[in-house]
Every structure is written in C-alpha cells, then in structure tokens.
Amino acid sequence: MTERGTIREIRGRSLTIVPEKSDSCFGCMNMECKADKEFLAENTLELPLEIGQRVEARAQSLPLLAQALAALLPPGLAFVSGYFITRFLFSGAGEGAFAFGGLILLFASAFTVYKLRKEKNTGITFRITKIFRP
Questions:
Q1: Residue 42 to residues 17, 35, 100, Cα–Cα distance (Å)
Q2: pTM
Q3: What is the phi/psi pair of residue 129, to 5°?
C-alpha cells in the first residue's frame, strides 16, 4: 500500500504525514480513510526531509497480509462453526436453518472484528520511499 502526503511534523526518524486526497478516494468522498486523519511514517533511508515536503510512503506487505487474515478468517470460521453448531443442536432442521445459523455467527464475528479494528491501531508502519520535488 502506497500513500502520498505532506510532512506535518518531524521527530527524529518519525514523521507525521497528512495524506493527499487522490482520485482513487473519490468513491467514498474521503469520509472514512482520509477524512482529516494523519499517519505516521519512518525515515529509514535517512532522506533529507523538511516540514511541508510532499512524500510517498509505503507499507510493508507482511503486516498488510496479517491484517487481511485477521479480518477475513474469523468470519469464515464463525460461519462454519455456526453451521455445525446449528446442525448439532437442531438435527431435524433443514439445510436452510443450518446456513442461517452460520450466517448469524458470521455477521456477529464480522461486527466484532470491525469494532476491534476501529478501536485498535492497525500496527502498519509506513516507510518514506520518495520525495516529490516542487
């Protein structure tokens, strides 16, 4: 994942960046991901940076993969669990009832994952990869 933005604050190797509003964010009208939010990045390449510069920051792919798995695995496992729990508790019911039991746990776990991710920091670290010259 690559983000572009303007440096707002520099504290040693740590930077606070205000993201740009790009054309790709037009779909949500910047209501969620870019609405007056900042992100932190590290200057691991020791680039000569100043406040107000436009930069590009890239996230490592392993934390992104871990975040995707943490968001997708629990609802999938919850559906399978709900299906078999419903099958065990109501063995005389039909396949529709089993699937409905799975859907209930799927949505419950998806909502739980959503609430936890909103409250907790994602843990994704960005690294400055490029400086845009004016």
A1: 10, 22, 46
A2: 0.56
A3: -120, -20
> Regarding beta strands 2-11 and 14-19, do their DSSP bridges make them parallel or antiparallel, or are they unpaired?
antiparallel
Express each pLDDT in 69-114 by its tens digit. 888 999 999 999 999 999 999 989 999 999 999 999 999 999 998 8
**Joined tokens for residue 7:** 């440096």
Using DSSP bridges, classify how beta strands 126-132 and 54-59 pair: parallel, antiparallel or unpaired. antiparallel
Q: Minimal CA–CA distance to 83: which of 113, 112, 115, 109? A: 109
The owner of tokens 């930069």 is 55
Structure confidence by residue, pLDDT tens digits, 23-34? 555 555 555 555
* Complete domains list, the chain, with CATH: 2-60+122-132 (2.40.50.140), 63-119 (no CATH)
